Amino acid sequence: MTPQTSAFCSIVPPHLLEHLARSSNPAVAAAARRTLVADAAARTFRVLPLPGAAPTLAPGDAGKPHRTVHDCARGTDLPGTKVRSEGEEAVADATVNRAYAGLGATFDLFMNAFGHDSIDGSGLPLIASVHYDENYGNAFWNGEQMVFGDGDDEIFLDFTLPVDVIGHELAHGFTQYTANLEYFSQSGALNESVSDVFGSLVKQYALDQSAEQADWLIGEGLFHPNVQGAALRSMKAPGTAYDDDVLGKDPQPGHMDDYVRTGRDNGGVHINSGIPNHAFYLVATELGGKAWERAGQIWYDVMTGGTLTPETRFSEFAAATVAAARARYGDGEEIQAVLKAWTAVGVPTD
Question: Which residue in 116, 270, 286, 316 is the catalytic one?
């Protein structure tokens, strides 16, 4: 499917950065304000598909990653200077090497677990830029590439540290090329949730973890050790990822009773994603084993099945997971796990 539009999709939600911008710590506040300004500029940039823009792969290149990492040298001109290409040896810059490895880990999940060649299914080259801006506290997908900040070393560390952050952002590209979920309200929260789901699966696949072994945290290791928080989000227990004097408290709900109605953050896309996130966690842990094998397969089938619209709501997505579970597995434990999970988070499936 050719993407119709793309959106600036970042790992750190604006409500968190806005909270930090009011911090009494001048360094924290300044870094957050700078990040918000940079995000606003990046958000105005829209990538539209060009005729013939699909990659042309040489014979034998299908099913293999095509990675390129660039260095912005603390500037904002993208993509920056090319510093590592596919197949080249590791360089002295650990950030570059982590970005390269994270692109590969994401490619491996989609290719090996689902037979999906890169994020578009047709071998799309994976491009990343590191060292973006000064004290930039975010990472984002802009419709054609990944961008990583170094953090401010007060709240955020280097954004290439958690592999699930890399997987999350590239999964926005996967959504762009499949269901193309509009980045607003419930469809936007589903867009964010799908990125958390596949970002978590990238980490679990790379570590060969079962659903029981996984931490189900998004961005674990991103916060400075002085921050009172484990990660940006928790799929296992939405609303518990952090509770810090500077950051504030994680606002994510895990049930429709607590759905947040807001005009901020594109209608709360980062906040309300906790509801479908928790549903996926419940399906994965109910079924057990490797989460990408059955729960992930159901979500993948929904995203690539052609039944979703850009404005898909939670209940429509839930119904699609029920249909996908039945189509692939029949009326067995898989469909029961899906029905049970959506009921537990208050989302109807019919």
Answer: 270
